[in-house]
Amino acid sequence: MLICNQMVVDQIQIHDEDDATDLLFRALADPIRRDILRRAHEGRLSVSALAREHPISVTAMQKHVAVLERAELVSKHRVGRESIVQTETDALDRARSALDRLEADWRDRIERMEQILETDKGDN
Amino acid sequence: MPVTDVRKDFDALTMTITAEFEADAERLWELWADPRQLERWWSPPSHSSTFVEHELTPGARTTYFMTGPDGEKHHGRWLVEEVERPHRLHMTDDVVDDEGKPEDGGPTGMTVTIAEADGTATMSIETHFADRVSMEQTIEIGFEQGMTEMVNQVDPLLGAAKA
After folding, report:
1. Cβ neighbours of residue A123 under 8 Å, at least 6 residues apart?
2. Is residue B148 within 8 Å of residue A34, measured between CB atoms?
3. How does the average pLDDT of chain B come out, rounded?
4. C-alpha torsion B88→B92→B97→B100, nearest 10
5. Predicted TM-score (pTM) of this structure
6. Smallest Cα–Cα separation from A21: which of A65, A72, A64?
7. Which of B40, B42, B140 sits opposite A41 (nearest CB)?
8. What gap in Å lies between CA B107 and CA B93, rounded to an integer?
9. Residue A105 and residue A111: Cα distance in Å, rounded?
10. Considering CB atoms only, which of B44, B123, B143 is closest to A108?
11. Which chain A residues are within 8 Å of B44, Cβ to Cβ?
């Protein structure tokens, strides 16, 4: 999972004709980049901090982050000398995803309530 | 499907879900009142819930934790505010750290209303985020779970393809 191949990074080429889906799948098709998405959702880690999590150089990490940026999966902003990486979502999307998640959680809970009522009825 | 209605207000940050059950109001109330029954439905099948303290009395604190597949624990705490057996229950839900101290962000409110007619009981659950901070917490927990789940599914597929 953490083994990196410098050549793989160097071989990454993004062509103008690639559509968004291609960019997305290409971005996700690498274990290091999937690990960056896992780590960057809180927006606290810099490119160099992310590089320290893997046996790769800061330059190699910059290339990985650039691939994720083109797929619009992460954004970068500067804090002092550091470049902070954050998984990309806008405010409305976040409100939507919070309420969607609550809905999904409660639908599941209601289904489990239903099952409990059924099971207990059977026991009587 | 027992769910009959879902309403979401993106400005007020509320979500209300309504479901019908073939049961009486008292039976539905027991799903909330009895900690052993709560443990059977509160967490997803991947996790187990343990309700340490739980009593539906105004001012009472509920403490619980969920244990994940890797043994990690997520702690939660409710404050029971209004109790009108078997029709209405209002509580607030705090995300707390390992030592039981509340994390940043106001508590999420939960209001349960139960009505009964002709052998069918209707339960509505309204959840209300106190502020954007508590909403963000919910998303982060959810996002992390969702992303981990997705990534874990993708990992072996791509690993196998490469081999």
Report:
1. none
2. no
3. 82
4. -70
5. 0.61
6. A72
7. B140
8. 5
9. 10
10. B44
11. 105, 108
For chain A, 124 residues long, give each residue's pLDDT as a single digit of tens: 334 444 444 344 444 444 666 677 778 778 898 888 878 877 789 999 999 999 999 999 999 999 988 887 888 988 888 899 988 765 556 666 777 878 888 999 999 999 999 998 876 5
State both tokens at A49.
């901090």
Q: Which residues of A touch B40 (CB under 8 A)?
A: 112, 116
Conformational region of residue B2, where left means phi above 0, alpha means psi within -120 to 50, and beta covers everything else? alpha
What is the reported pLDDT for A4?
41
Query: What architecture does CATH give domain A6-87?
Result: Orthogonal Bundle (1.10)
Written as six digits, the tokens of B65 are 């934790």
d(CA B108, CA A101): 14
Tokens in use for B42? Answer: 């509160």
pLDDT of residue B145 exceeding 90:
no
Domains of chain B in sequence order = 3-132 (3.30.530.20)
Torsion of CA A53, A54, A57, A63, to 10 degrees: -100
Give me the residue spans of the domains in chain A: 6-87, 89-124
